[in-house]
Amino acid sequence: MALECNIDARGKAVRLRLGLMGVLSSLGLAAACLLISAPDLAWIVPAGAFIGGAFAIFEGRTGWCVVRALGFRTPI
């Protein structure tokens, strides 16, 4: 499956910004898990935020959006 560009420059910028916020917030969540000695399952939240942020950065860099590829129209 080829990843064709399906978002414009404004959509790319929004996805990059959201991705960076996701990755940075995941680092803060991971630090909080370390400080409170959270159980093993608590690491799912920072890991999910990191993976989601990294995927949003990927979308912003490539210009491809999975939601738009599925046929939905996004307002940005």
Essential attributes:
single chain, 76 residues, mainly alpha, 0% strand
Structural features, described:
By secondary structure, the protein is an all-alpha fold. It has one domain (9-69). The protein is built from three helices and no strands. α1 runs antiparallel to α2.
Strand content: under 5%
| Mean pLDDT across every amino acid position | 91
Major beta sheet summary: none
Helix amount, in percent? 55-70%
Shape: elongated
**C-alpha Rg (nearest Å):** 15 Å
Task: Specify the number of helices.
Answer: 3
Number of strands: 0
What is the N-to-C succession of helices and strands?
A: HHH
Uncertain regions spanning at least 5 consecutive residues: none
Terminal residue distance? 24 Å
- How many domain units? 1
Structural class by helix and strand composition: mainly alpha
Task: Please describe the topology of this protein.
Blueprint: H1 9-35, H2 44-62, H3 66-69
Helix pairs in contact: 1-2
Question: What's the short story on this structure?
Answer:
The chain is mainly alpha-helical and 76 residues long. It has helices at 9-35, 44-62, 66-69.
